[in-house]
Amino acid sequence: MQSLTYGELIRGNRNFRNLLTGQFISELGNWFNFIAGLGLVRLVSDASPMAAGMFFLARLLPFALVSPIAGTFVDRFSRRTVMLATDLIRVAIALSFLFVNDADDLWIAYLATVLLHVSGAFFDGAKNATAPNLTGKEGLLAGTALMFSSRFVLMAIGSALGGWAAAIFGYEVAFIINAASFLISAYTVWLIPEEATRDDETAERMANKDSRESFLTELKEGVIYSVKNHFALTILLINMIWAVGGGAINVIFERLGGVYFAETEAWNPDAAVGLLWGSAGLGLTIGMLLAHRVSGWLDRKERQVWFVGWALIIHGVVFAIGAFMPSLWLFAVFVLVSRAIVGVEYAVHETMFQRSLPDKIRGRISTLDRGAELTVFGFVSYAASGLMFVMTPQTLTILSGILSAMAGVVWFMRQKGRRDGL
After folding, report:
1. What is the model's pLDDT at position 211?
2. Rounded to whole angstroms, how far apart are CA atoms 377 and 52?
3. How deeply is 140 buried, as exposed, middle or buried, from its count of CB atoms within 10 A (0-12, 13-18, 19+)?
4. Interior CA angle at 308 toward 305 and 312, to 5°?
C-alpha cells in the first residue's frame, strides 16, 4: 500500500491537522505540569523517593485502570464530545496544583494528578480511535508517526522549557500554562466535524441503539479479542514486558538527574531532570520521523518481524550501557540514541497494529493495550523508588535496559514462522 508522506497528509487533511495541533499544544502543557509537579513534590517532601514514587503512581495507575472503560465508552458515544468535555474538565484540575504549599498539601497534588490522568484516559481513547478515520489507510503510517513524534518532541521541548520555567519563574507559571493548553486543545477539537471521527459502519451501529450490546458486553468483547487474536495478544505482551524495564525510567531520571548529577556536577535539579526527559523526547521524535523511510524499506524487503525484534533488543542494551557514563550530558546521549531506536520500532509495530483493528472495536483494543502497559509501568515506577534504598540509580539503569530488551526476545518467540507478523 502506498503511504502518504508527512507533508501530503498535513497539507491535504484539515481535520487531522486540527487534531495534531490540539495534541501538540496540550502535550506542551502536560510536560510543563510533569516537571513542575515533580519538582513541587520534591521540594515539599524534602526529596523523598517514596513521595516521587507516589507521584508517578498517581500519574500512571489511574490512566491504566480507567483505559479499558474509556475505550469501550468512546466506541459507544461521540468521540468528539468526549475530547471536548475532558479538555475543559482538565482546565480546572490543572489549576488546583496552585494550592499546594507544603507537605500537608501533597494530597492535593496526588488527587489532581489522578484526576488529570483519568480524564486523559478518555481523551486519549477518543483521539486514538479517531485518528485512523481522519488519516485513512493511506495516511495511517504518516499519521501514527506524526501523532507520536509530536508527543515526543513535546517531551523534549516541554520538559526542557518546563524545567527552565520552574527554575526561573516558579512552579505556578507551569501550571497556568498547562491549564491554558487544554483550552486551546478544546478549540481545535471543536473544529473537527462529528462525522469525520467514525466510519459509516460504526456511525450506523451507534445510531441503532436498540440493537447494541450492553456496555459490559462490549467491554468483555474487547478483552476477548485482545486475548484470542494472536497479533493483538503479541502487542499486549511485548508492551507489558517492555514496561517491566521501562517503568523504572521515571525514577532513574529523577534520581540520576535530580539528585546524583545535581550534586556531583552542580546541576539545578529541575533542569537536570528536564534535560534527560528532553533527550528521551528528542530521540523518540527522531525515531518517529525516520519511521516513514524505514517502513518503506521494510515493506519492500518484508523484514518487519526481524526489525521490531532486534530494535527492541538493541535499544535496551544501549540504555543499559548508558549507566556507565560519568556525566549527565554523556548519559543523555545514550538516552537519546536508545529512544531513537525504539521510536522507529514503535511507529512500525503500532501502524501494523492499527491496520489490523476494525474501527468498531479499535477504541477498546488500543486503550486496553495502553492500560495494561501503564499498569505495569506504574507499579514498576513505585517499586523502583523503593529499590533506591538498596541499589544505586546506575544499577537500576542497567536492570531497566536488560528487562526492556526482553520484549524483543518475546516478539521473536511469538512471531516465529509469521512473515507478515499478523
Report:
1. 57
2. 14
3. buried
4. 145
pLDDT of residue 177: 83
Q: Which helix (H) or strand (E) holds 373?
A: helix 359-387
Contact 10, 146 (CB under 8 A): yes
Q: How far apart are CA 162 and CA 182, in angstroms?
A: 16
Residue 273, amino acid: V
DSSP-H helix ranges across 96-208:
106-135, 140-169, 171-190, 200-207
Rounded distance between C-alpha atoms, residue 51 and residue 255, angstroms: 13
User: Is the predicted pLDDT of residue 185 greater than 70, yes or no?
Assistant: yes
- For 27, the enclosing helix (H) or strand (E) is helix 14-44
State how far the alpha carbon of 328 is from the alpha carbons of 389, 391, 396, in Å: 22, 19, 16
Q: Which of 124, 140, 122 is nearest to 132 (CA)?
A: 140
- The CA distances from residue 415 to 87, 306, 317, 366, in Å, are 39, 9, 21, 20
The C-alpha atoms of residue 320 and residue 195 are separated, in whole angstroms, by: 47
Domain architecture of the chain: domains with CATH: 6-415 (1.20.1250.20)
Mean pLDDT of 162-187: 81
Q: Which of 222, 42, 218, 30 is nearest to 119 (CA)?
A: 30
- What does the alpha-carbon distance between residue 183 and residue 170 come to, in Å, rounded to a whole number? 22
Tell me the average pLDDT across 106-120: 89
DSSP 390: T
Quick one: DSSP state of residue 160? H
- What is the spatial distance between Cα 138 and Cα 4, in angstroms, rounded to a whole number? 6
Question: pLDDT value at position 388?
Answer: 84
